């Protein structure tokens, strides 16, 4: 899908369709008023007859509206004007794109982007319109033998801004939106691929291809190198599977040599069966999504390269499967991490922290400005925050605030949980330096407290995306989150 930004009156648009909003109580948006005026009250008449009441998510397609140059007008319900916030705006764009793709229209001029959204500005509106449109049109059909029937002729959206002076802001926002959307698409595709296709080797090959096409550095350590390095915790998970592990190192150098890099670490479990502490069968297929942290790092790198941000960024992806076998971890096993600290594995299903801890120790060698890890780490996070908000924990409040803010402006929100020292008590082991689980209470926090034992040397934050990386049920699929959050975090850092 292509996007362009335009200023100019809606009644003069030659586009196949002009899209305008209608608030509750049949009140037209500004562009709607303008069109209604040119059409001598044609729209007001339709509203008066009760054919469109402005309820959120509803649409009405009008043909042959008098006084206009366009073929059609699409009315989109916006709900209450005084409560027109993020969710309503996004819903309106989604409804518009869905309605447009059911028509024969290949191009439309969308005036929803002009409508003020509470606490947001034009740049936000434009970026979100791009993101929501791309998300609405996304389909994953790589694994179908034939593509599904769809006419899908819609290929261009023109997003309106009110004044010529806003064109530059709108264009920059559209480019940012496109870069984020492309990064999300990559993350979604990787997440949606089944575990028998998206293996550690596949992820590594994708990383190599991405790095080559976008011109950044990549290095892939194979399982033998992981062993030589002394990543005993990572290796202990990897060795339970016949599919060999990889450790992927991405290096984007948009900043000058002296600039300390930001390190992003993504959990890359391409399938999590739980191992010997086997998970129940129901919904176990969803554990193919246990590499969504890794996918979000790759998606973010793609956007980073697209936007050419003047930063140095390192991506670290430990990737393997978690399966039961004669070589798998057993409850009670003790392993030695790259840091030298020993870990008693009381539950082999708490494998994410085992592969991440060695990557976090490896991160030290880059003398990082900060480290952010992204992981589908705990079911407890889904219980706490549901599927709306990612969990955030950090050993530095400034970094936490930056990520909270980035999540807000990207509409990809996270919420901070406390990481007080007291939680470490729950990780005590009689046989090793620590246990890999902390019991039922505060499962998301104790998982982070475990990682915190490996991040003492730098500023660090952890995003638990167990509830936000994919959707279950009828619309099962990867969401591409938290690529928007991460890109906004980096954009802000690049601005200094
Ligand atoms: N990948 C899972 C976390 C998960 C579970 C994400 C459900 C999304 C939905 C992780 O490896 C895991 O199994 N965590 C355990 C930890 C427990 C054994 C301490 C969990 O949350 O049950
Ligand atoms: Mn697990
Ligand atoms: Zn897992």
CATH 2nd-level architecture of the largest domain: 3-Layer(aba) Sandwich
**What's the CATH class label of the largest domain?**
Alpha Beta
Low-confidence stretches: none
Strand content: 15-25%
Q: Please report the number of helical segments.
A: 14
Query: What are the distinct ligands in this entry?
Result: ligand BES, manganese (II) ion, zinc ion
Shape: elongated
- Report, as a whole number of angstroms, the end-to-end distance: 32 Å
CATH topology of the largest domain: Aminopeptidase
**What is the C-alpha radius of gyration, as a whole number of Å?**
25 Å
Output mean pLDDT. Answer: 98
β-strand number: 21
CATH superfamily descriptor of the largest domain: Zn peptidases
**What would you call the structural class?**
alpha/beta
Helicity range of the residues? Answer: 25-40%
What features would you describe in this structure?
The protein is elongated. The chain has 14 helices and 21 strands. It is an alpha/beta fold and 496 residues long. It has helices spanning 30-38, 42-48, 86-101, 122-137, 167-192, 200-214, 223-229, 232-238, 292-307, 352-362, 379-385, 397-409, 443-452, 483-495; strands spanning 2-7, 17-23, 27-28, 59-63, 72-79, 107-110, 156-161, 217-222, 246-253, 262-266, 268-272, 312-322, 333-336, 342-345, 370-375, 390-394, 414-416, 434-435, 460-464, 470-471, 477-478. It folds into 2 domains: 2-160, Leucine Aminopeptidase, subunit E, domain 1, CATH 3.40.220; 182-495, Aminopeptidase (3-Layer(aba) Sandwich), CATH 3.40.630.10. The chain starts with a strand and ends with a helix. It binds ligand BES, manganese (II) ion and zinc ion (ZN). Zinc ion is lined by residues 269, 272, 290, 351-352.
């Amino acid at each position: 899908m292509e996007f362009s930004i335009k200023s100019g009156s809606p009644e003069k648009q030659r586009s196949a369709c002009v899209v305008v909003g209608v608030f509750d109580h049949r009140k037209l948006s500004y562009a709607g008023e303008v069109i209604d005026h040119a059409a001598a009250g044609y729209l007001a008449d339709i509203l008066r007859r009760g054919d469109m009441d402005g309820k959120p998510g509803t649409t009405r397609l009008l043909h042959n509206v008098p006084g206009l140059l366009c073929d059609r007008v699409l009315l989109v319900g916006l709900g209450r004007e005084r409560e027109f916030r993020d969710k309503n705006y996004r819903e309106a764009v989604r409804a518009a794109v869905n309605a447009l793709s059911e028509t024969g229209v290949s191009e439309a001029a969308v005036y929803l982007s002009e409508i003020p959204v509470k606490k947001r500005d034009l740049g936000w509106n434009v970026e979100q319109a791009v993101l929501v449109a791309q998300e609405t049109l996304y389909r994953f059909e790589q694994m179908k033998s034939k593509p599904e029937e769809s006419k899908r002729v819609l290929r261009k959206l023109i997003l309106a801004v009110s004044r010529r002076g806003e064109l530059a802001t709108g264009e920059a926002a559209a480019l940012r939106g496109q870069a984020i959307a492309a990064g999300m698409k990559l993350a979604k595709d990787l997440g949606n691929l089944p575990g028998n296709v998206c293996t550690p080797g596949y992820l590594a090959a994708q990383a190599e291809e991405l790095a080559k096409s976008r011109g950044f550095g990549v290095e892939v350590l194979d399982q033998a190198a992981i062993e030589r390095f002394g990543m005993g915790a990572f290796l202990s998970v990897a060795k339970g599977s016949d599919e060999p592990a990889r450790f992927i190192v991405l290096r984007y150098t948009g900043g000058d040599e002296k600039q300390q890099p930001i390190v992003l670490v993504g959990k890359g479990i391409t399938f999590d069966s739980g191992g010997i502490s086997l998970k129940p069968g129901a919904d176990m297929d969803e554990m193919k999504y246990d590499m969504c942290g890794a996918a979000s790092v790759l998606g973010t790198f793609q956007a980073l390269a697209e936007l050419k941000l003047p930063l140095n960024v390192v991506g670290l992806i430990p990737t393997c499967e978690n399966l039961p076998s004669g070589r798998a971890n057993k409850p009670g096993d003790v392993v030695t991490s790259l840091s030298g600290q020993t870990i008693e594995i009381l539950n082999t299903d708490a494998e994410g922290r085992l592969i991440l801890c060695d990557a976090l120790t490896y991160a030290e060698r880059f003398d990082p400005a900060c480290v952010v890890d992204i992981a589908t780490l705990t079911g407890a996070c889904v219980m706490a925050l549901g599927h709306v908000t990612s969990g955030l924990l950090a050993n530095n409040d400034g970094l936490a605030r930056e990520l909270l803010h980035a999540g807000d402006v990207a509409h990809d929100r996270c919420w901070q949980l406390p990481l007080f020292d007291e939680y470490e008590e729950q990780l005590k082991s009689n046989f090793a330096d620590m246990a890999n689980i902390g019991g039922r209470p505060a499962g998301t926090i104790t998982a982070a407290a475990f990682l915190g034992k490996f991040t003492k040397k730098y500023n660090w934050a952890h995003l638990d995306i167990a509830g936000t990386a994919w959707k279950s049920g009828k619309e099962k699929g990867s969401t591409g989150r938290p690529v928007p959050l991460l890109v906004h975090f980096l954009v802000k850092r690049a601005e200094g």
